[in-house]
Write a structure and sequence with these properties.
With 271 residues, the protein is an alpha/beta fold. The chain has two domains: 131 residues, Leucine Dehydrogenase, chain A, domain 1 (Rossmann fold); 133 residues, Rossmann fold. 38% of the residues lie in helices and 23% in strands. It has a six-stranded mixed beta sheet, sandwiched between helices. Helix 7 links the parallel strand 8 and strand 9. The radius of gyration is 18 Å and the shape is globular. The model has no long low-confidence stretch (mean pLDDT 96). Bound molecules: 2'-monophosphoadenosine-5'-diphosphate (ATR). GO terms for molecular function: NADP binding; shikimate 3-dehydrogenase (NADP+) activity. Homodimer. Keywords: Amino-acid biosynthesis, Aromatic amino acid biosynthesis, NADP, Oxidoreductase. It holds the Pfam family Shikimate_DH. One of its GO terms (biological process) is amino acid biosynthetic process.
Length: 271
């Protein structure tokens, strides 16, 4: 029987993951099937169990199930434990479910692909929700000079920073506490979805700075347009999507797909 994988979400019809993983499988010669499954909002664990019963070997997990997926795992990677969320499930030979999160590695790899130097960088992260929590450990592992988390709800940013304070120089607060310049600003808020812009000071970017939005789309986000007008180099989250998928693929199949072609194909499709 062909090994089965899927992405769980709700809604899920717009997911690019089947396209990405099918391309990875073709490229690496791995025989597998990858589909998108809309799990019921009230029974994610049941959806995973049914998938396993039907020959499922692993899955990606997206909104809104990453925390629930975390809770059902028998074992977890260190980075998933830190993130409190899981985007990759893997069924072990022993029948136990292993959970990992590849979002942060995806972000860091994409930044490196774009030539962004992280070691020694002054980084500002916007947002303090699940998306940001999920990337902090890999980001801090690159040894930036400092990370400041700014959030609409300042207390959430401060609490999040405190959770990761053992891993590097990291602080948090409200947008009014932001003091630039920064070498890299990462937007991890969901404000882009509603076309809104967090209130940021104009003098945010150091010369040669980059602005990264974890979101992507046919058009640049409001944040990226704002950043570009202030001289930053702008990068959207399409590459992060492809890189996190590649890391999941590696966990499942022990093969590293080449991501450049898939990224280019997705970009073409968006345009
Ligand atoms: P996700 O899983 O995408 O991180 P989340 O956990 O709901 O979703 O977090 C959303 C983040 O976007 C939060 O940091 C939120 O700020 P609050 O903690 O103050 O709610 C931020 N956010 C959402 N809409 C925003 C807006 N219009 N302006 C600024 N920040 C916004």
């Amino acid at each position: 029987m062909t090994d089965r994988y899927c992405v769980f979400g709700n809604p899920i019809s717009h997911s690019k993951s089947p396209l990405i993983h099918t391309a990875f499988a073709a490229q690496t010669g791995e025989a597998l099937e990858y589909t998108a499954i809309e799990a019921p909002l009230e029974d994610f664990a049941g959806a995973w169990q049914r998938f396993v019963a039907q020959g499922g070997c692993g899955a990606n997990v997206t909104v809104p199930f990453k925390e629930e997926a975390f809770r059902l795992c028998d074992t977890l990677s260190q980075r998933a434990r830190r993130a409190g969320a899981v985007n990759t499930l893997l069924l072990g030979k022993n029948g136990l479910t292993y959970g990992d999160t590849t979002d942060g590695v995806g972000l860091v790899r994409d930044l490196k692909h774009h030539g962004v130097v992280l070691e020694g960088a002054r980084i500002l992260v916007l947002g303090a929700g699940g998306a940001v929590r999920g990337v902090l450990e890999p980001l801090l592992a690159t040894r930036p000079k400092s990370v400041f988390i700014a959030n609409r709800t300042a207390a959430k940013a401060a609490a999040l920073a405190a959770d990761f304070a053992d891993l590097g120089v990291i602080q948090g607060g409200g947008f009014d506490a932001v003091v630039g310049p920064f070498d890299l600003v990462v937007n991890g808020t969901s404000a882009s979805l509603s076309g809104e812009l967090p209130p940021l000071p104009d003098a945010l970017f150091a010369p040669g700075a980059s602005a990264y939005d974890m979101m992507y789309g046919a058009e640049p986000t409001v944040f990226l347009r704002w950043a570009e007008a202030r001289g930053a180099r702008v990068i959207d989250g399409l590459g992060m999507l492809v890189e996190q998928a590649a890391e999941s693929f590696f966990l499942w199949r022990n093969k590293r797909p080449e991501t450049g072609q898939v990224r280019a194909a997705l970009r073409r499709e968006l345009e």
